[in-house]
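Predicting structure from sequence has reshaped protein science. With that in mind, we have picked out one protein's residues alongside their backbone shape tokens:
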Amino acid sequence: MAHWIPAPGNMATYIGRTKAQTRNVIVIAEAVRGRMIVEAIGRKGKNVRLTVSRDSLREPQPDLFV
């Protein structure tokens, strides 16, 4: 099975260490060593940028916006 590689501008699901850290993000850019810069909505409702492992990103489910 081929691993999904997100491109900048794609929406992805970030799978964190806990269920509370799982969130939908937008991929901003590729960083170094298999990491991606993503943007998400933070705890105070403002956009935050995070650097996460590419392996922690999953393609969103097709029924995400249904």
Remarks:
- The longest strand covers residues 23-30.
- The radius of gyration is 12 Å.
- Residues 17 and 56 are 9 Å apart (CA to CA).
